[in-house]
Request: fold
Amino acid sequence: MINRTKIFLLLLVFSFTSHSQGIKTFFESPNDNYYISSDLHIHTVFSDGVVWPTLRVDEALRDSIDLISLTEHIEYQSHISDIPHKNRNRSFQIAGGYVQNQPLAVVHGTEITKPMPPGHFNAIFIDDANRFFDIDKKPLEFSKAIKEANKQGAFVFWNHPHWEANRSDGIAKLDPIHKEIIKKGLLHGIEVVNFDTFSEEALQIALENELTIMGTSDVHILIEWDFINKKESYHRPLTFIMSKNKSIDSVKKALFDGNTFVWYRDLIIGKLENLNQVIENNFEIISKGYNYRDRKVEILEVELKNKSVAPINLKYTGEYTFHNDYKYIELSPRSSKTIYIKTKEVKKTINLKFEILNYVVGPKTNLIFSKNINTLN
Ligand SMILES: [Zn+2]
Ligand SMILES: [Zn+2]
Reply:
């Protein structure tokens, strides 16, 4: 059984690295870095979802996603009498067999599902979900299950810590058990976005405890019913993994190293250094010189360019005023806008400083972007 699982994994690494063309670029990345789009929290009929694993693959391909994991509940199997399966790796094996020669990888995962505290945890990059049961076929108790996940080399993250079914005030907070698994190095990430919720408190916990910032769909029905039809530009939450290359090893390392950011509705959420890199590669400022309506005046023409799939909502915080615009400027996805800056005298360089209102680097905290522009290029 275990050998069979390993064979699937090897095939997936191959298809993942050799068929990367055709995938939509959501965000531009530096030459030595790939932003791998991922949804690492998904259910099928093999736990409490309502669709077959191959449909999850088809949905992900339609959404141009690079990496998914089918994270069936260990403890909660609502269709078990209709779909009995002793082998808890089946969901992964069916999806893995189906995905071959596609620009998508499926990695093996599962959801350890306990009452709060501690709550629910995803273990990604496991070898064998059957080892989360004892000899009496009972699910391992939490402390043994999280150790087993780590023994298999899994990346473990805390799911929906702000779920109102567990926390009636919707506030994510650490119980002693969470502090213990963080201290022991058994927990590596935390969902700050789950389905249609975003928790600033979970983001604070991530930053304070160096947990990797995650956002997932946790989809149980069709992706289209949950995310697409509500609004034209609506999309499932995605975690972008900032990886040196497209191998599974590199992706896994990036997750453990905290190199992620989350795209949720119009928000980009991540730690400061990561969002600095995202904005640096997706927001371009190009000076067109001093030539306002063919007049030699002290009004500088500047093009603001958004290369990403998400909007960039700017608040200018510098000293100048503009000739046509106010301090709030919205750049739609993949768009450009020209602004005219009244610099009072012709300058060789100017500094432009913005708050990026939809880039979130902490609770109630936006990313600050500052750039020196050569005006006479
Ligand atoms: Zn859950
Ligand atoms: Zn779940």
Summary: The CA atoms of residues 132 and 148 lie 7 Å apart. Residues 1-22 have pLDDT under 50 and may be disordered.
